[in-house]
Amino acid sequence: MGWSGPAADALRVAPGFDLADLDTRSTPGWRGKKRAGRDATAARGRELADLQEKLYAHGRTGGDRSVLLVLQGMDTAGKGGVVRTVLGMVDPQGVALTAFGVPTPEEAAQHYLWRIRRALPAPGTLGVFDRSHYEDVLVVRVEGLVPVETWEPRFEEINAFEREVVESGTTIVKVLLAISPEEQAHRLRRRLERPHKHWKYVPEDIDARERWRDYQQAYQEVLDRTSTEHAPWHVVPADRKWFSRLAVTELVGRALEGLDLDWPVTEVDVESELARLEASEV
Amino acid sequence: MGWSGPAADALRVAPGFDLADLDTRSTPGWRGKKRAGRDATAARGRELADLQEKLYAHGRTGGDRSVLLVLQGMDTAGKGGVVRTVLGMVDPQGVALTAFGVPTPEEAAQHYLWRIRRALPAPGTLGVFDRSHYEDVLVVRVEGLVPVETWEPRFEEINAFEREVVESGTTIVKVLLAISPEEQAHRLRRRLERPHKHWKYVPEDIDARERWRDYQQAYQEVLDRTSTEHAPWHVVPADRKWFSRLAVTELVGRALEGLDLDWPVTEVDVESELARLEASEV
């Protein structure tokens, strides 16, 4: 039971990867079922809390490292649940979550990377993007919001942008949560059948669903063209929620471990501060 | 066991309240010990998640309500732990945590409420201030950073400011976490004795400790002059961490319940959307 090797190896997009061939109920790299998966998520979460505190301490003492989780996926793929799982296990201080929706008029008046840059995690921070700059080569393309001459050069631009982000000290973890159209129908049906979930439902969800193949094709091109050495894509099968939560927790944990941070060494003279403390009469 | 009445009644600052008389190990309003307290916190947390989702849904559908938790307390009083507890139980989306430290040069160049206004929770959001505008009548006063003519009028100004915030739809929950000087010494000692906590230690903590009475007096005046009908103060004894976490969870839960929100009613025609869903061939 457990991971058969580094989860990143099992989930990272390899050359020739074809999204159409993915079994969205599979659990690549994981040997075990739901119960063991949930236990492993909780156990990894406790380590995550420690790793994230170390990152935060590093940032508070002049360090420049940070981690950015970029989440993409079709509606109902479970981005919100993954965010709740991962961020629910760490200290809210030191975390920065940004959900990117339809651009506001202010955002739309700027370069599409403007709002992204503003949301990049500060040193010491674990940042999470719920949707991201990839929408500018996904929804924008499929819905024909801008002409091909506009979105086509963005792949290269995004690669250059991410290189810059990585070089400034941020580890980028890009994850596509992949569900099947059948699973999406099931989740949309549940949303429609439960009155207290109605607020989450917008008719545009079905509009997008009707262009499923176009979206898959757009996602495939994103994977083909922007899975770089400095910022590779991971595709996480997401029909089983317990697996997508486990997998992303693991990927973020590994990214934090990869920073190889130690607890900062204080410049304070501990002995003399202890003496001051004992002498302080209140 | 459990709360003997509304926690807010037991913890709200009553006329004539004297901080010097507070037993910081007491558990006002709560009948039970540590284990029951922790269980109650977890149980309340599950309700909190639901209430916060309702608030978020309300904000997403045009509602104007929000909740703001304002946390104050001496160093090591446990503000960070309370934040982790409360926010760890709700959806990170829909939460906005701001920690106010020493003002940056940009902030210092503005009115002291400038950075506070910028951090007010948006509609549908549960905001948390870890320290707040109250530092501008606390540390600023005790450390003599501005003259009395400057800070003295701030009490009235803060009351007027908070009234404006409340009138715009925000419920303000103000909490002072009160520890004893002995408990602070214990916690500072632990911080100094554990190398992986050194990064949290700054010698200024002991500087402030040496002015304990001045701070207590400044806090007393804050309670006397800014515990208003629209934004009352609560004093939570905080020597026992399990109690402060339980109490603040309960206060925030009650504030959310007090909004008396229902799940938004959708304008979508559910039947026809279900039909569209079934017809969507992918």
Automatic annotation (TrEMBL), chains A, B:
The segments labelled Disordered in the record are 24-43
A molecular function (GO) held by this record is:
polyphosphate kinase activity
Supply one GO BP term. polyphosphate metabolic process
Q: Which residues form the signal peptide?
A: none
Which stretches make up the Polyphosphate kinase-2-related domain? Answer: 34-257
PANTHER family, sorted: POLYPHOSPHATE:AMP PHOSPHOTRANSFERASE (PTHR34383:SF3), POLYPHOSPHATE:AMP PHOSPHOTRANSFERASE-RELATED (PTHR34383)
Going by the UniProt record, its keywords in alphabetical order are: Kinase, Transferase
Q: State the organism of origin.
A: Actinotalea soli
The protein, known as: Polyphosphate kinase 2 family protein
